[in-house]
Structures are given as structure tokens and as C-alpha cells.
Amino acid sequence: MTASSTFSSRISPPEDIDAAARALLDGALVVLPTETVYGLAARADDPDAVQRIYDVKGRPAGHPLIVHVADGMAALAGSWGADPLPLARSLAEEFWPGPMTLVVPRGPRTPDIVTGGQSTVAIRVPSHPVAAAVLLRMDELDPAGAPHGVAAPSANRFGRVSPTTYADAHAELAHRLQSRDVLLDGGPSEVGVESTIVDCTGDLPRILRPGSVTAGEIAAVCNCTVDDVRDGVTDIRVSGSLPSHYAPDAQVVVSPDLQAAIALLMAHVEAGARVDRIGLIAPASEPTPEGVRRLAAPKNSDDYARDLYAALRRADDDALALVLAIPPGADEGPVDAVIDRLHRAAAPRS
Prior knowledge:
ten-stranded mixed beta sheet; DHBP synthase; four-stranded parallel beta sheet; 14 strands
């Protein structure tokens, strides 16, 4: 396990990029910053390395992973992916690098452990400079194997809140890593929620997981109708699709507005809850009830997405018992993604 002091800069210096790339090529794990959340990365064509992701996270077997690459078009055309439809190419040209994952027919390099045995694979090109630099360095160090890919789910225990800072990723997983593994610091994640996952295996795009790239933005590129598939109602399994996910220890209750939240607050207090152990996540326009801990006051849905996971983690750090969350109002940002994450955090746990 690399000590946290080794990677203390906001953007990791070149020697850390090189160390991370070499570690991945050698089958080690790397905590990797991306623009969405921090990921736990392993060389995607090394089943033993990928198995360690499952072991470290406590991730159920068969739950598919996303392959992150530097060269998206090469990955789509015959290596990680195979025979992509024009739809996938159009979306890749518009949104890569960036917070969009495309599900395409599986290519010959993708092992079963990455896809969960499915005939499809999920591929993304991250835009974060550290993630991009590590992937490029892998290709430079081993050009014969390019384009290299890493499987990289969020760097947290399965089902828990995804980390959006190095400190949170380190606190979550460092004690479960080995001395040969590497942790990279890339500053706070810019987006704050996981990528939009789009099924590109049919004639029309289907959103399998909402993210910061919206249905309207996708429709504008493909000039077509965009389907939105929720709660696993699809034949393709993807990351983050279980009903309960992204959940803190504190109970999360989603409330439509402040008056409803206050009513819930009073009901919990009358049932014996301490008001100082209740937190609130709500748009900045909503006041904070007396005695309640304000966890986040986002001004719009972009801010909400960026602040959400840090707020949920703060609730656990402060030993809160309950988090009341008022979703963002309608705007052009990732409203659907925020509401999706809130409801999964609030869902009953199995």
C-alpha cells in the first residue's frame, strides 16, 4: 500500500503516472482519479488482476465492469469492442473523452470476468488528465498491446458511497490494498456521479444508467428518440443498476419539498430521534430547519451532483442517523442522475 504522503499533490507528477502505468501492466491495482468518481483499476485483460477488484470491493461475481481506454475508436473497432453500429461511433465522436460509457458488442480481448459473461462490453474514455495520462503511458510502455484498457469500478466497498476525493478513496480502500498497489491523487472529481451508460447495440440509444450527459444531449447528436431504462428492466446488466446502491450508513429519506421534509423531521423527533443527528441535503434556496445539520446547499443540479457523495460521506463521519434529501428542481443539468442516486441511496438494503 502506497502511503498517502507519497501522492499528496493535486495532480500527480509524471513519476507517479509512470509508476501507476507500470503497476497496472504488472497486474497490480491502482486507485485512479477520473472526472466522475475515483475508480479502482486493474488491467482489463488480466483476469487475476480483475478478480482482485471483486475481492477488494466485496463485489458480487458476475457484476460487469467498465473498460476505460485512451483510444476509444481503436477500442470500439475490433479489440475491446467489436462491430459497433454507427450510433456508437457518433456518440463516441461527440462525448469522448468524457463521462459517457457506451455498451457495444464484445470484442476478442475482453474476458468473461469483465463482462459478467455477457456478449456486450461497456467502454469509456475518461477525460481526467491523470486517468488519461496513465492509460497513454500504458500504451507507450507496451505498444504491442495497445490499446490497453483498465477495468475500473468506483473505489469503494460494493454498494457504498462512491469517493470523489483522494482522501475518501484512501480511507475507503487503502487498508485492503497490497504494497505493490498504487494510489493516485487527482484532486476532487469534477462531475461527482458516475458516467451515463448508453446501450448502443440497437437502432436507438437506451440509457441504462443516467449521468451528467443527459438524454436531451444524446438525442441532439443522434437526432432520434432516446429510451431510458431503469431498475434493471433490460437484458443487459451494467454497473450501478441494483435498487440499493451508493448508500451511507445513515438512513436516507427523499422528500419532495421542504414542508414534507419538516413533517418527516417532526415525525422522527417525536419517535425519539435527536434533531442534531439529522442532516439535510437540499437546494440552496431551501432554508435549514433549526437544529438540523446542513450537509450541502447546491445552487443547481451540476452542483448537486458534485456535492452529493461528499455530503453522504459527511453524514457518516458525523455519525448522523438520518439524512433528509430534497432533489434539485428541473434544469438542463444532471437532474435525472441526482434523483437516481438519491433513490438508490434511500432504497431498502437487502
